[in-house]
What does this fold into?
Amino acid sequence: MEIEVANLKKQIDSAAERIKINDLAGELHRLEQESSHTGFWENTKHAAYVMQRIAKLQARIGPWKKLITAANDLVELASLKDASLQKEIKNSLDTLATEFADLTQDLMLSGPYDDHGAIITISAGAGGTDAQDWTQMLFRMYSRYFDKRGWKYVIDEESPGEEAGLKSIVVEVDGDDFVYGKLVSEHGVHRLVRLSPYNADNLRQTSFAKVEVTPKIDSQNEVEIDDKDIKVDVYRSGGHGGQSVNTTDSAVRLTHTPTGITVSIQNERSQLQNKETAMTILRSRLARLKMEQQAQGISQIKGPNQSAEWGNQIRSYVLHPYKQVKDLRTRYETSDVDGVLAGNLDPLIKSFLEYNLSENLTDKTA
It folds into this structure.
């Protein structure tokens, strides 16, 4: 029994190390100290972010700390080699193993920004009007998924298609359960095959849309950007939006000069609101790029290689001549295309998280 207890403790310690439990605890301690300082609530926006972050860290760390303590206590109990305690040790071991199994999902969601909200940008690719319609279909699919999970979302920017659909749309998503960590599975090019409703001969059409998922970075402390690296342009908003549209220079375009990343926002009425939203999106895109390039700091990031991504679709949705959704990374497939397009994404997301975890474990042991 002592060997089984020691093996389980080893697994728990290894898992806690993988999710960087000590780093998370250090961040929690630092934020709790900051929240106790005089004048903490003078900057209400930052204070609200800190308190929200504290709550998330407490919820994530608490179960692991409890599990580690229980494992240490059980190791000590087993080391007594008291025959009268064997039944108690066996029951405690079974309970601990069950609790550990329930927490293993954290291993799939242990990235630095997995517990953050997300910003999703969907852009039409090759395929003309069909691609723009496909972009709107994808947004509808995601919005239904958000509704199912009780996540809140806000449209930051929307560009309608010329005949139908959307050229592009930018959406902020927030929730309590690892929004970015789950939605990152959707990052990439999505391919649709169907009989085109926009083709006079009703021929089969292949169209593409690109989904970009970045962690939502509200705090400038998480991703620091040098002011001299940002070019700010203001201009007059166009399209729908109320009486103030087209009367003031409320639209904002931010360009991060080292990488060439550009963010344009014109949805809100005030220039200040648009700039704040654009800064959140810019920080988010830089954070994603930093992770992809494994750079130590923002200053080391190179511009994104946009052209390379278009040939690498991650998922195909076939509506004709048969029905199938297939993820080309995980090989997960289903014939329930209608269900997927109605927001039933959990099986696809789960398969990606399991695939991603197995790939990471393989890399670490290689």
